[in-house]
């Protein structure tokens, strides 16, 4: 590390990097997550970190943020060696992290969220500092505004504001655009560029290669726990980046030839859902039909009713109006298990919270939702041997990379967890698959595998209701597109002709 060099006037100019990781190695039982990784991030740059799930990105960032300690190697911040024992140490050294899933309390105000876990109260100085940082990140909300009233883009800005308030000058952004529409991505990038000009440094983790090339000053690629090189975004192509990451070309979502039939599988009529407070509707008069061999995509800015629509169709929410029919059979009063037994598969939007038991083995996770059906159940009891055998089939057929089926789900990378969930839900010959963000946070290799399985199932006659924040995925996989806004379906779009920008405009209501 260097302390600095002499400028033209003879004064010392500090050229130490914002972050310097040298020879970082981290081992876990049966796997080397990081193997002698070097990463140097200059001050006031946006440095992207790319790699497939399981490549070691998350482990490396957890080491930088003090969540884990390296087995070997050194960490430097602003030219000084550091040894973080906790995130509090990292924050004290000016390192902040904005996680992929927002960590905000909806019932609290902007100021209260900023000050959660920070020292001091909401005095005049704190409010002035929050207002100053709000201008820096482009947040127009007042300190007293409740977070539940903020849109997704402003929530993202608030998360950044939180780490800046704690003194961060280097910010780790984990998949920051996963829930943003194109216009919001452009706004976020404008914010990052403005902050970079003020001296802030960003580590930008993403699997969206177009966005990485648009915002990054440099790109470091990690593959199977090793750094395979640093690329210049002005000259590297998406194909070259994909080949560095996974050794193959970048996949594209493509539904292929139409397989839509006239046979109705799912019919939703007049679906309504009141908010718990009773003062408004979360869903209002939803009418929807999905045919065998058809993918119906639901496009909407997060928080406009997609989650409620999926959970109401699955029978997870009560008090709804209207009807839900599967193959002509009225399931409106049926519970979730009855709907699953009728042939509904479900890929939830958050696999960690709703799709898997992290501390249970893979074969035990295979049982979830299928404990009353073959091949998992026989004579009313779970057949352990059959469950293990079928888990091995899923691991093989869906390319779930794991040392074995007796490891816990939490030991797998995010992409491999997702492939396990998709494989489980496509088992048992479902007639309808409800897929909520099926490739959120997974790498290009896992994306390609999941897309291929959805195309194969669709061609075999499966009806799919697809919810996704990835507009390219929605447009590429869907046969029909519907736009949801404020709990209502407000229009449709033709996937063959609509652009992501046009779809994003419809989603925000700007088209009206």
From TrEMBL:
Example GO molecular function: ATP binding
GO terms for cellular component: plasma membrane
Keywords per UniProt: ATP-binding, Cell membrane, Membrane, Nucleotide-binding, Repeat, Translocase, Transport
Domain ABC transporter: 19-249, 266-511
Range of residues in the leader sequence: none
Pfam families, alphabetized: ABC_tran (PF00005)
Protein's cellular compartments: Cell membrane
Listed CDD domains: ABC_Carb_Monos_I, ABC_Carb_Monos_II
Membrane association type: Peripheral membrane protein
Protein name: Nucleoside ABC transporter ATP-binding protein
């Amino acid at each position: 590390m260097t302390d600095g060099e002499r400028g033209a006037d003879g004064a010392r100019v500090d050229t130490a990097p914002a972050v310097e990781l040298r020879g970082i190695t981290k081992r876990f039982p049966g796997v080397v997550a990081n193997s002698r990784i070097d990463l140097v991030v200059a001050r006031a740059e946006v440095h992207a970190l790319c790699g497939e799930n399981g490549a070691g990105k998350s482990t490396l960032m957890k080491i930088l943020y003090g969540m884990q300690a390296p087995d070997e190697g050194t960490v430097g911040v602003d030219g000084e060696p550091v040894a973080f024992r906790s995130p509090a140490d990292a924050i004290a050294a000016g390192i902040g992290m904005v996680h992929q899933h927002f960590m905000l309390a909806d019932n609290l105000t902007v100021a209260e969220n900023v000050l959660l876990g920070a020292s001091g109260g909401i005095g005049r100085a704190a409010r002035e500092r929050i207002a100053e940082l709000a201008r820096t990140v482009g947040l127009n909300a007042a300190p007293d505004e409740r977070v539940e009233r903020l849109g997704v883009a402003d929530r993202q800005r608030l998360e950044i504001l939180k780490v800046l308030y704690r003194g961060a000058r280097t910010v780790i952004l984990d998949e920051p655009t996963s829930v943003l529409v194109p216009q919001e991505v452009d706004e976020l990038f404008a914010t990052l560029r403005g902050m970079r000009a003020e001296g802030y440094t960003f580590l930008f983790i993403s699997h969206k290669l177009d966005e990485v090339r648009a915002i990054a000053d440099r790109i470091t690629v990690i593959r199977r726990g090793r750094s395979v090189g640093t690329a210049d975004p002005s000259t590297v192509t998406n194909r070259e980046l994909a080949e560095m990451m996974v050794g193959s070309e970048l996949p594209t979502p493509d539904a292929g030839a139409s397989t839509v039939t006239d046979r109705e599988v799912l019919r939703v009529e007049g679906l309504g859902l009141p908010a718990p407070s009773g003062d408004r509707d979360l869903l209002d008069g939803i009418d929807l039909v999905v045919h065998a061999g058809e993918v119906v995509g639901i496009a909407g800015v997060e928080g406009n009713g997609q989650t409620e629509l999926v959970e109401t169709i699955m029978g997870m929410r009560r008090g709804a109006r209207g009807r839900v029919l599967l193959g002509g059979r009225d399931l409106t009063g049926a519970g979730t298990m009855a709907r699953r037994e009728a042939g509904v598969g479900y890929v939830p939007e958050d696999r960690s919270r709703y799709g898997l038991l992290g501390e249970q083995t893979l074969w035990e996770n295979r049982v979830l939702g299928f404990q009353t059906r073959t091949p998992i159940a026989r004579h009313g009891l779970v057949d352990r041997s059959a469950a293990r055998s079928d888990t091995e089939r899923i691991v093989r057929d869906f390319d779930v990379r794991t040392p074995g089926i007796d490891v816990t789900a939490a030991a797998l990378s995010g992409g491999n967890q997702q492939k396990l969930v998709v494989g489980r839900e496509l088992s048992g010959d479902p007639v309808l698959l409800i897929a909520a963000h099926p490739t959120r946070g997974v790498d290009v290799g896992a994306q390609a595998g999941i897309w291929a399985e959805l195309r194969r199932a669709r061609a075999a006659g499966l009806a799919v209701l697809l919810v996704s924040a990835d507009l390219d995925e929605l447009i590429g996989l869907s046969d029909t597109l519907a736009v949801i806004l404020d709990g209502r379906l407000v229009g449709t779009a033709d996937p063959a002709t609509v652009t992501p920008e046009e779809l994003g405009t419809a989603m925000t209501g700007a088209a009206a």
